[in-house]
Structures are given as C-alpha cells and as structure tokens.
Amino acid sequence: MDVSLTATFSHQHRAIEVDGFYDGGTDYRVRFMPDTVGEWRYLTHSNVQELDGLSGTFACTPAQEGNHGPVRVHKTFHFVHDDGTPHFSFGTTCYAWNHQGDALEEQTLETLRTAPFNKLRMCVFPKHYAFSQNEPEFHAFERQEDGRFDTTRFNPAFFQHLERRIGDLRDLGIEADLILFHPYDRWGYSTMPSEVDDRYLRYLVARVAAYRNIWWSMANEYDLMAAKTMQDWDRFFQIVQTHDPYQHLRSIHNCRDFYDHGKPWVTHCSIQRPNLEDVSLWRQQYRKPVVADEVQYEGNIQHNWGNITAEELTHRFWEGCARGGYVGHGETYMHPEDILWWSKGGILHGESPARIAFLREVMEAGPAIDPYQTYWDLTQAGDDNYRLIYLGRHRPVVKAVTLPADKQYTVEIIDTWAMTITPLEGTFSGPCQIPLPGKPYLAVRIRLSLD
Amino acid sequence: MDVSLTATFSHQHRAIEVDGFYDGGTDYRVRFMPDTVGEWRYLTHSNVQELDGLSGTFACTPAQEGNHGPVRVHKTFHFVHDDGTPHFSFGTTCYAWNHQGDALEEQTLETLRTAPFNKLRMCVFPKHYAFSQNEPEFHAFERQEDGRFDTTRFNPAFFQHLERRIGDLRDLGIEADLILFHPYDRWGYSTMPSEVDDRYLRYLVARVAAYRNIWWSMANEYDLMAAKTMQDWDRFFQIVQTHDPYQHLRSIHNCRDFYDHGKPWVTHCSIQRPNLEDVSLWRQQYRKPVVADEVQYEGNIQHNWGNITAEELTHRFWEGCARGGYVGHGETYMHPEDILWWSKGGILHGESPARIAFLREVMEAGPAIDPYQTYWDLTQAGDDNYRLIYLGRHRPVVKAVTLPADKQYTVEIIDTWAMTITPLEGTFSGPCQIPLPGKPYLAVRIRLSLD
C-alpha cells in the first residue's frame, strides 16, 4: 500500500498511462497490451527510487494467428473483435471452476476445447452455495496471525492462479466474463468495506486488464448483495472504466431487478431471465447489445433456474438469437460428487451443447442480424438479403413471407433439434408460401440467391 | 326510433327500470330477470298510448336446478354465480359460430355438450376474415331499397336468432362472452357512426341483458378498429353499464395494446397474450380477475396465433391457472371446407380439450386460489391448507417445500398431459423434499390431511 507505480507507454505521439502492481517477493510489474504495430517506449513513475524512471523500448509485432484482439460493441447491438472479426457471443457458465484445483480445472479446459462456447462467466472470488461447499486452494488476501484476512495485503498466488486460467481460456479463444463480486460467500468477500472493494478493483484491473479476453462483470446477482448500494455499483463501474486502459466490455448481472443498463458506463446488457421473447424489448429499451447469459440451465436439480430440458434451452438460444440477442448456457445435472458444470466445471453431460454448436455455425455463416418486423408473435431477424425466422413453439404447415419481387431467394428449413438444414427446391421471390412440416422448433433461413 | 318503452319492475320497496324493444310486426317487448323469489309488479311507460301504463304481477319462483344465476366477481380475482356457486372460467372461442346456419350451429352445440368449456367467446356481428368468408343468413339491419342497410331499423330476425343461440348456450351451462364490436368486417358494422353504435348497444342490452349467461365484451381486438377512439370505447362501456339492470361482467379484448383494465367500468381483464407467467403481474396491476382468453390456439395454420401444439396449450392453461388466472381455448386446424372451430365451430379435432377437462376437474375440486410466494421463477398458488405448484417446463428430481410444522399434508403428483394423479405415500409436514420423476409438465397438489 505504500508503493505507487505506474508507467507511460508511448507510440509516436500517443501515450497511455498504465497502473502497475505488487506481485510478491520483491516483484513489481506493469502489464501492457499494445494495440498498434511498431515501436513503443515506456517510462515508469514511482514513489520508490528503484522503480522510478525505468525506461526502454520494445517492438509490437503483428498479431499471431487466432489473436483478434479484445471484443468491442459493433453497430449498437453486436460485437466484433478489435481487428474487425465478427464475434457472435455463445457463452457458458462455470462460476467457480478456477477454485477447484488443477485436476478438475484441467478437465474443464479439456471439455472447453471442443465445446461450442466462446465466453465463460467465472467469479474472481470463490463461491459458497449449494453444490459448491469446498474450500479453495487460494484466497485473495494474506492472513493475519489470528488467521483473519489482512485486506491491506493481496495474495499474489491467488491472482497468479486466476491469470493463468484467464490465459488458458484466451488460448482456447474464450472470453473470460470475469465476475468481480457475488453474494455467495462465507469468507467475507461480499461484505468488505468500500475502501477494500475499491483497492481490490484497482489491483485486479492493474493485473488482468492486459489480457485481451477480459469482459468485466461487476457482479453476479448484484441485487442479492445486501451490503452494497446502487451508489457502490455505479462507483465500481466508474473505477473500472477509469483505470482500464483498454476499455474492455463492462456489464452487471441481475437476479430479481435489472440494473439500469442505460447508464453510460454499461457497454452491454447482462440479463437473467427465461423469457427470450423480450430480447427485442430490451434492445429497444437500452440500445445496447443484449446478452441473456442466464436463461435457466439444462439440468434436473430442484431449483427452477437449473432444471430445464436440453430442448427448452435450445429453444431459448434460438429465440434470443433470432431476435438479435446473445444467449448463455449452463448445465446443472445432479452428480454424485456435486460436480455440476455451472459451478465447478468438469465434463458436460447434456444434449444442448451440440445444438448450440449447430446454432453457432448457422449464426456465424450469416451477418449480425437485427429484428425485422419483430413482434411478440413473430421471431424474425435480418434484412432484404438475409432473413432468419424462428418458429419456436409454433408449427404452421405453411408460412407466408413477402420477399422483394426484384430478387430471387433460396429458402432452407432448419430443424433446430435434429440439426438438419433442408433446402427447398428452386428460388423464391415476392409474396410466397413456404411449405413446412408442421412441427415445432423449426427455423427458416432465406438468403439472396447467388445464381 | 319514434317509440320509447320502459317498464318498472317492483318487489316490495325495490324498483328496477328496464328498457323495452321493438321485436318486429306490431310486437314490443320488455324482458326482465328477477333476482328475488316472491311477487313482482310491473308498470310500463311509453310515448305510445297502447304501450303505456300496462301493469300486472307475476311470481318469481325458486331457481330451477342448474340455474345458478349470472356470474359475478368474487374476492377481487375470482368468479362466483349469484347463488354463491363457484365459477372457474374455462372458455373457448367460436367467433362466428352463430352465423353458420342451423346445421353447423347445431353440430357446434352438440360438440359443446360434452366439451369442458363453460364460456364461449362469440361475436354479435358476422365475421369477414381468413377461413371465414361466407355470407351470414341474417344481418342486424333492414335493407333500404338500394340494398344498403337502413341503420335506423334493426332486423328482429337477426337478434331473435342471436338470442336463440345465447339461450342454447345457457341451457348447456355456458356463459356467452358476447363480443359487441370487432374489426373483421366487410359489411360496415365496424365503421358505423357513433349514434348508430350507441343505438345498437342500447337495443342489444334491452334485448339480451335478461339472459343470465351474458358477459359483455366491448370488442375483440379493439385496438385494430381504426374508426374507433379510446373515447368511443370508454363511452361504450358506460352505455352498457348504465343500461344493464343486472350489471353483467364487462371487459374488452386487445390485440397489440391492452385497454386500461384499471378503469372503473371494467370488471375483469380479457387478455390476448401467450406469456401466462405474467398472469401474476396483471393481477397485481389491475386488481381484477385475469381472463387470458386468447393465449394462441391449438392448430397448424400459418398464423402464429393459431399453430401451437396441444401440449403447449395445455401448458399455458396450467401456467395461468396456477397463478390465479383463467385461460381460454381455441382450435385452428386446417380443414378442407375451412371449418375451423375458432371461427365457425363444428367439431373439435385437438388433444387439448381432454386435458382442459382434466384441469377443470382439478381446479373445481379445490378452492379459488391466489398466488403464493409466486415469482417469475415459481408458479404456485394456494394457502396453508391447499397448495398447487405447477412445474411447467421444469423437471426437478426433487422439490423442497416448507409446510406448516403443526399440520399434516397429503401430496399428489399430477401429470398434466397423461392426466394422472399419483398420491405419495404417507403425509408431509414442515420442511420436506418431494421426490419427482424428473420430467416436464408436472404439478404438485398439497392438501391438508383429513385423517
């Protein structure tokens, strides 16, 4: 707490201030993520002579293959990586996977390697909750002699482990949707004094902001944290916004009541609700990307947020995506050792991930889409060149669609559960009647014919 | 139009003014529905000498078996008949069944005889819409020489036929939810001048208010009637409220936007929406009974309001009922002669009516229920003596329930689709874990043990 350390990184006439941090022993570090190829200079500033005035240069080379940079908001409601690569968010949830010890954590990574997810919701702090009672290996603070946390001294090992796991996700192409606070706690992390909260935030930002795959989530279920006020949440956003040199995405996740995602420091909505039909309303309300990242999980536990079928979760993914939103996965099947994916990771048992992979392929094969004449009764997105209609629980035997009369279109029937795409014969134009097999959970994809 | 006719009906010191009406030829009539056993007197008032000052007495005898009187609002959110018999509303929809000619109309009545419905939504005026293009036998007005309607002269035959069908429903124990205006029109009924609208309402009320099974629905999809303003709708309610001596139930049915059911002349909500989870919100918002009488129909036509499965409609019935609301049925299967139940009646083809019959038995075996600790994530109604939990799309393998510790309860698992009720062994008390088969669309009924 007595040492201040920052560094200025400069490229030509541009200079960026970055906070440093203490990393154990006699180590102090400053991390930086350059965004421009070329020569950069640095110069440190500290109240400690040995850390002050250190300078040097380094070369920023072109990004390696697979490195598309951080994710940004794009066209109001969507995402792209910094290099312009579209990012269709398909997240999952493993709240405390990084507090399970190396064996299980590595199994989780192995599972993620072939899973369809490119974002993962995870907590900085360990989690105390049903199915999640184990003591973590690391804690964020050093202990006092009486065994209590000394909240003036961060434990570098805790953060080094966190960073290792964030890096592991990065290497798999997965965004770390990092949850900064949450209510499920027996250690005191959810009830720290404000000055400790704020110091923690600055320390964490200094440590991990340079990871390109960071998304900041101020909280999981912020509204269940009785010790925090709305002013606290606003201040947390402001601290992160002020100290993150890279302006990673920022949001906050609700239980009962939404945070006002219209506030200027919120980059996108992070929503817990099962009614994906309302994605189009939330888009209108907040004018930001809508990530419905908790829509209830595939599973069979007693809590209603964790016992829907794979069919139902697949349905909610399609409903949200075909209204111009993004949806998140989780899995909560009863397990003899309480290893539920949503909390601890491990392996996936469910049937929805294969369907989510299929949906992701469909979405990534098209443009980012906005609702098109959407209504509570019609789930449809796209434009005059590309249209995706999701029929959900409806099962018409025919669907009337009016296409521009001066162009020709191909039409495909997508079975979202069977994961089949069936092209209809010929091309379509103007007002047309699309024959359908009269079963639920179909989608219709209409694309400009390239012939 | 030149003849005024009213009558005063009196019982002891109570007097009720009732409007009379012209019924063709030289017939003028006054209809009256007494609500009290005993001797009643009447005295007519008219600007025509032959109709003025006519008087007499008659005896009102006790109601015949099966006659429970009109339906009233009960305990804010529910319904009872005037004699105190509970009324659990299970409606269906046959908008234009009464404009199909006797053969089909009688087939509809025959179907209704064994169907589970005790309310039917029907239009006074004929309907012009998809699957409903036929010319009706009767029109509400006499024709001028040029073939156009003479809106100063009602056609008694039209109304006599309507009354006959209302009486047929009454004899089957079915409430006639009579739709006074609707937008689907090629004859001009939806665009009449205000004075014709108002005269029609007074004439209709004078004719049919004495039928005990009348519910007034100002409109189907009022918000699609471009020629009417909100002031018109308010005035229509006021006219009906002013002239109906019996104060039958009054509501109005929306398409896109709800009418403000909080207005004082609205007795209950009549709602078109598929999201039955919101029944509990609408109850809170309006503090009136919620009748979700259009929740999309079992069928396979191209319109999304008419192509959900029997399973899905059954689910919506349970969701609404277990949140303290009432739900309506409709059926729209493609038919070679365009005889779709929702518009023309005929016979039922679907699989939901059997399940609605089963649900009705369940509901009628218990008390009228209000939400109990309900949340968007929990569908539950009842109190300390009776509880109905509907699990819907959820499929937990166990459900934690906390019951009063000083009483014993029986627990039954209800399969809403298979229509089975399976009692669990023994009795339950205090905090308990209810084992479940882990499949969707189950309900749990918990009742105070009578042992």
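qc> The longest strand of chain B covers residues 14-22.
qc> done
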